[in-house]
């Protein structure tokens, strides 16, 4: 029997930590999660956690991303409007469950914790914007969208109403609303 090397075990430990942080986040909310509780749940020392992450926010965000990456796939149907609709609709459906509810908690905590806000922007929202950017760039290259498109402004135009409802009005974010937003946006950016 071959002896296992340290690296796979380390990855297993890292995954245990990510799962523990995510489970605690879902069970108790961001404010109640501590590095001590994560360590206890993952059956590791706090030093082991700090070996990979600088603070609670970093490990919790990584745990969240690790657990949810499969739920928000990157669409590529051959149509920019369909891909944006799928991306936004998948996100809205995700928001409607308990896991997605965590996003509002993290954003709220980030209003008082600049370090957390920076982490979630870099780790979660910047990659989401990049996906939208790729979708719009594909639409431009296929001739579906105007060549002079301000991609950043278009992304804000599409996503702004989603976060306005999520964080301000609390109104429903359903498929009908998303279709209207995407249709209105694409009327202005089509070729």
UniProtKB/TrEMBL annotation:
RNA-binding among keywords: no
InterPro entries: Homeodomain-like_sf (IPR009057), HTH-type_TetR-like_transc_reg (IPR050109), HTH_TetR (IPR001647), Tet_transcr_reg_TetR-rel_C_sf (IPR036271), TetR_C (IPR011075)
Originating organism: Clostridium rhizosphaerae
Protein name listed in UniProt: TetR/AcrR family transcriptional regulator
Keyword Phosphoprotein: no
DNA-binding region(s), residue ranges: 34-53
PROSITE patterns hit by this protein: HTH_TETR_2
Keywords, ordered alphabetically: DNA-binding, Transcription, Transcription regulation
Pfam family, one: TetR_N
Alphabetized PANTHER family for the sequence: HTH-TYPE TRANSCRIPTIONAL REGULATOR RUTR (PTHR30055), TETR-FAMILY TRANSCRIPTIONAL REGULATOR (PTHR30055:SF148)
Segments forming domain HTH tetR-type: 11-71
């Amino acid at each position: 029997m071959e002896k296992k090397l340290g690296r796979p075990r380390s990855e297993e430990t890292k995954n245990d930590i990510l799962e523990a942080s995510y489970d605690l986040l879902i069970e108790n909310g961001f404010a109640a999660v501590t590095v001590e509780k994560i360590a206890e749940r993952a059956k590791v020392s706090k030093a082991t956690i700090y070996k990979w992450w600088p603070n609670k926010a970093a490990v919790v965000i990584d745990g969240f991303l690790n657990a949810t990456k499969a739920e928000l796939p990157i669409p590529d149907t051959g149509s920019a409007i369909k891909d944006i609709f799928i991306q936004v609709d998948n996100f809205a459906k995700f928001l409607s469950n308990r896991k997605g509810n965590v996003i509002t908690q993290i954003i709220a905590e980030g209003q008082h914790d600049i370090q957390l806000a920076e982490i979630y922007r870099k780790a979660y929202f910047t990659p989401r914007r990049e996906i939208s950017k790729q979708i719009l760039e594909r639409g431009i290259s296929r001739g579906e969208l105007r060549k002079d498109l301000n991609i950043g402004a278009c992304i804000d135009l599409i996503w702004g109403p989603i976060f306005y409802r999520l964080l301000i009005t609390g109104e429903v974010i359903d498929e009908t609303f998303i279709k209207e937003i995407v249709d209105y946006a694409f009327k202005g950016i089509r070729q």
